[in-house]
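::Amino acid chain::
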Amino acid sequence: MAAGSWSVGRVVVMAMQASAVAQGRRQWWLSDGGGWLVDAEIRSKKDDCYVDVESGMWGWNCKSSIIAKENCALKCLSPRCYEIVYESDPLEEGEKDLVRSQEYKFCLYK
């Protein structure tokens, strides 16, 4: 791929992201070539995971507390990212870990 075409491609992607931000939503290109991922899609998929957790699909343990539901929903949304970020030290009651939350979001988008 010629350097010029790569730059043009990158400019197009950046312009599309700027347009999405201007419209109140963020878009990210998935590194695996899977296409665009919009924050609203992530929220929708996570909401679907909460429904699955509430239905008992993830077992009683996932319904035992608010934080257990959150851990299970994060695992449902992306088992790979959950394993990387939270598996060795799951969220605990009352914990707000903004650093790991950002790491998880970054993992989702990369």
The longest strand covers residues 27-29. The chain is about 60% helix and 5% strand. Confidence is low (pLDDT under 50) at residues 1-25, 28-33.
